[in-house]
Amino acid sequence: MSNPSSSWIAQFKPGDRVEISPHDPGFRGSWFAGTVVRREAKNTNRYVVEYDQLYEDESGEKLLQETLDWIQLRPPPPPPEKKKVQFKFGDEVEAFYSDGWWEGAITAEHSGGKFAVFLSGFEEQIVFEEKDLRLPVQWVKGKWEPRFEQVQREKEVS
């Protein structure tokens, strides 16, 4: 009997746009935009990727490339549905900060469409404009699914 969690493996091609989740300390819970450069080898599930906004050194001349497992990659999420997302206190969100999307939770609502978000990766609270927030989604077996918390919230609203 095969392991169901390993029965589906994402396949990427050179040039595919992806979001990259580094597993390095200090980067957990983050996603960065990038491009697939190539597969590491023909029969592996590792890919060489290049980040859009992370660089190899302080000079900012050469974009960072890394070899990562397929599980650390996903296509960019689809844009939010036409209906405007109504963020509120306690929502789990991803906030665009320091060149990537970081997991966090809304801790306060401010006027003018701004929200205080506690970013667990930074262990600090930062105020963001609504345009810099998105609801987190999961890439599961080749399709986008809302996180459990979002499904529960939608049931409460309807």
UniProtKB/TrEMBL annotation:
<protein>
    <recommendedName>
        <fullName>Agenet domain-containing protein</fullName>
    </recommendedName>
</protein>
<feature type="domain" description="Agenet">
    <location>
        <begin position="85"/>
        <end position="141"/>
    </location>
</feature>
<feature type="domain" description="Agenet">
    <location>
        <begin position="10"/>
        <end position="81"/>
    </location>
</feature>
<dbReference type="InterPro" id="IPR008395">
    <property type="entry name" value="Agenet-like_dom"/>
</dbReference>
<dbReference type="Pfam" id="PF05641">
    <property type="entry name" value="Agenet"/>
</dbReference>
<dbReference type="InterPro" id="IPR014002">
    <property type="entry name" value="Agenet_dom_plant"/>
</dbReference>
